[in-house]
Amino acid sequence: MSLIDIHCHLDHERFKQDLDKVIQNAKKAGVKIIISSGVNASTNRLILKIQEKYHDIVRCSFGLYPIDVLAKEIEKGESDGFQRDIEAFDVDEELKFIEKNKDKCLAIGECGLDFSWQTGKEQEQIPIFEKIIEFALRIQKPLIVHTRKAEKECLDLLEKHKAKNVVLHCFSGKRSLIKRGVELGYYFSIPPVITRLDHFKMLAEEVPLDKILTETDAPYLSPVQGERNEPANVKVTIKEIAKIKKLSDKEVEDSIFNNAKKLFNF
Q: Of 60, 162, 251, 264, which residue is least crowded by CB atoms under 10 Å?
C-alpha cells in the first residue's frame, strides 16, 4: 500500500507519550509519507526534529497559522475541548528561517485565514496571508491553506496572486466554492471525519480524483468522535472515497499518492 497523510500535527502534546507507536501504526497501515505541519515558530522547529528522527517516513511543512500570526486567541480542538496556547512571533523573522531551511520542507502551511473567532481583527490577517502567498511563490513551494469561515476570501487572494500549487486543507466552503477551487486547479485534502460529516462526502463527489489528497489533521478530525486521530486513519478516508467514486481502494490510493508526488515533487 502507498498511503499518504499530507497534513497532521505530530508535534502535538497528545502524541508526546507514544509517538513511536503512532509512527509504527502508520507504517503498518501502509502509510509511506506523513507531512507534519507547523503552525508557528516553535512548532516549525519541533517538526524539523521529528523529521530528523523519523526521516524514513516524516516530512515537514512550515506553518504560519492565521491566529498565531496575530497571537490573539486560544484555539480549541475539533470537539474534545483540547486547547493549545497561541504563540506570538515575528512573521518576517520566521519567513527568513523558512527560507534558510526551505530544502528541508515540502510545503508552506498551514497558513491562510481564520475568521471563526470574530475578534474584530479578521482583516489584519489578509496582508499577512498575501505576504505568505508571495513568499511561497518566490521560493517555489506549494501552499497548504487553512480557510475556516473565510473560504471565499482565501480563494480571492490565491487567485489574485496567481497561486497554482495549492492544497485547500479540510475545506468547508459551499458547493459553488468547491467548484471554483476545482476550476482554479487546486487540490482538496480530505480527513477521516468524512465518515461522519456529509460535507466531506459531498466534497469527494464534486472534486475529480486527480485533485484529491488525504490528510488526517491528527490529532483532530477523527473518524470516531472523541478519539485521538492518527496518520494511520488515512486508510479510512481512502475506503470512503472509493465507495463514493465507485472505484477500488487500490485505484484511489494509487491516484492520491501520484497526486501528492506531482504536487510536492518527492
A: 162
